[in-house]
Specification:
Structural class: alpha+beta
Shape: elongated
Largest sheet: 5 strands, mixed
Radius of gyration: 22 Å
Number of domains: 1
Strand order of the largest sheet: 2-3-4-5-6
Strand content: 25-35%
Length: 163
């Protein structure tokens, strides 16, 4: 079981702290309905730092393998997860001000008790494709898996249409 980590995000960033570890996918409840199978482990590194403007930042690096469901053939799709996010920490209430800036830097609210597991889960959810599919020509089509001896119920309707 994953040891729950909570950090004071501003202290973490200003002091250049770092935590790393692994978390089983089964420990992420919001992710479960996106997965074909809950097996797997995600490796993570969360590092605090200050950018060139002395803004507190978090760097979140994740790697691992998720089992998603291909939306074309409905079989399991191994989806490699490899991402790195840089998140600006902003005081509560000022998040909207930073949203209008043009530098497109992702921002989160600074929190004295930031749940690292929730942060990791959120980053994974944001990185997953909306409709995952195998590359063209590599997945078994749904029609190939159907029993051809069963008559298509719409064939009768098609016959009525021609009369």
């Amino acid at each position: 079981m994953f040891a729950q980590h909570f950090i004071d995000s501003l202290d973490f960033a200003y002091n250049g702290k770092e935590i790393k570890g692994e978390v089983p996918l089964i420990e992420m409840p919001r992710l479960q309905d996106k997965l074909a199978a809950p097996e797997g482990v995600i490796s993570f590194v969360v590092r605090g730092y200050q950018d060139k403007n002395d803004q507190p930042m978090l760097e979140v690096t994740l790697s691992g393998l998720c089992q998603l469901c291909c939306q074309r053939c409905l079989n399991t799709l191994a989806y490699p997860l490899q991402l790195s996010s840089h998140l600006r920490l902003v005081p509560e209430g000022e998040l909207n001000e930073f949203a209008d800036e043009e530098d497109e830097q992702d921002s989160i609210t600074a929190d004295q008790r930031l749940d690292v597991l929730a942060l990791l889960e959120e980053e994974i959810l944001l990185s997953l494709p909306f409709a995952p599919v195998h590359p063209l020509g590599t997945c078994q089509s749904v029609a190939e898996g159907l029993d051809r001896s069963v008559k298509n119920p719409f064939a009768v309707l098609a016959g009525l249409k021609s009369k």
